[in-house]
Hints:
By secondary structure, the protein is of the alpha+beta class. The protein is built from 4 helices and 7 strands; from the N terminus they run βααβββαβαββ. Helix 3 links the parallel strand 4 (78-85) and strand 5 (113-120). 27% of the residues are buried. The mean pLDDT is 97. It binds coenzyme A (COA). The site of coenzyme A has 21 residues, from strand 4, helix 3, strand 5 and helix 4.
Amino acid sequence: xxxxxxxxxxxxxxxxxxxxxxxxxxxxxxxxxxxxxxxxxxxxxxxxxxxxxxxxxxxxxxxxxxxxxxxxxxxxxxxxxxxxxxxxxxxxxxxxxxxxxxxxxxxxxxxxxxxxxxxxxxxxxxxxxxxxxxxxxxxxxxxxxxxxxxxxxxxxxxxxxx
Length: 162
Ligand SMILES: CC(C)(COP(=O)(O)OP(=O)(O)OC[C@H]1O[C@@H](n2cnc3c(N)ncnc32)[C@H](O)[C@@H]1OP(=O)(O)O)[C@@H](O)C(=O)NCCC(=O)NCCS
């Protein structure tokens, strides 16, 4: 795969929603209402306070991520990201590429650290990826996530200095 990452355009939304919809509907990985409407999902993923990107492989959109300040005011030097790879493109390095891009974009924007607030503890592929990118678990939130199959599971706060 020759994955490139670029800023998302409004016209990318249908392709982005195709990737987000099954992820949100499953309720397995994001702290987002599983029945979120397309309108609300768009306002969430493409919020003006966020920079949103898409990953492309040979012209096809295969991934998306956002970058945003995780806190306001005097804590806005820590950022947050969310990543989704199209189901058909998983396991081929798309998220690894988006992670590298996001770390670079965050450093360029002047953020001092990146924090993921709610990494579901049974999302093993994501946890392995974040750890391999230098993130560590700095807190465990007991039973913070209601997983549709596994019930109440812990969630992790994962953090990396930039
Ligand atoms: C998590 C997610 C973004 C990973 O995307 P991806 O493009 O498939 O990931 P990559 O191909 O870049 O894999 C990178 C690393 O992730 C880990 N990984 C990926 N798939 C894995 C799997 N099935 N089992 C274990 N580890 C896995 C590995 O560490 C892998 O590194 P390697 O290729 O050197 O072994 C993707 O599965 C996804 O969109 N899931 C739904 C949304 C989600 O969970 N987002 C993250 C929320 S914290």
